[in-house]
Amino acid sequence: MQFELTSDVRASLLAWLERRGGTINDHAFPSRVDQAHHMSTRQYARLVDEWVSAIGLRRQEYGTHSLRRTKASMIYKATGNLRAVQILLGHTKIENTVRYLGVDLEDALVLAERTEI
Predict the structure, then answer these.
(1) CB 19 within 8 A of CB 33
(2) pTM over 0.85
């Protein structure tokens, strides 16, 4: 999925590339093993484990998947737009997104109460 970077994100990425000695043609997060390739999902998972431990949280309760799910849940709660979350997650079926987020009758009722006609 393609998305537009905000100017703040673009500036942060350029600063990061400059700090580590990379160019805009390089991977933002290269592999430890081979700089020509991107960081592996396993490397990323290890980093998240380190970050979680460093701030005093339990590694068993937080990981790459829970971060992905949390962001999707926050977008859904803020907007109520299930279709947008489906697109962002790359789900082909809306039913998968509903199950993934744990949307239930109570969620639907809260949205209905917030909507005035």
Answers:
(1) no
(2) no
DSSP-based three-state secondary structure for 32:
coil
- Rounded Cα–Cα distance for residues 95 and 77 (Å): 17
Residue type, 109: L
CB 82 within 8 A of CB 97: yes
- Contact (CB, 8 A) for 75 and 88: yes
User: Which of these, 28, 51, 27, lies nearest to 37 by C-alpha position?
Assistant: 27
pLDDT at 1: 56
What pLDDT, on the 0 to 100 scale, is given for residue 83?
92
Asked if residue 48 lies in contact with residue 64, where contact means CB atoms within 8 angstroms, the answer is yes
pLDDT band at 2 (very low <50, low <70, confident <90, very high): low
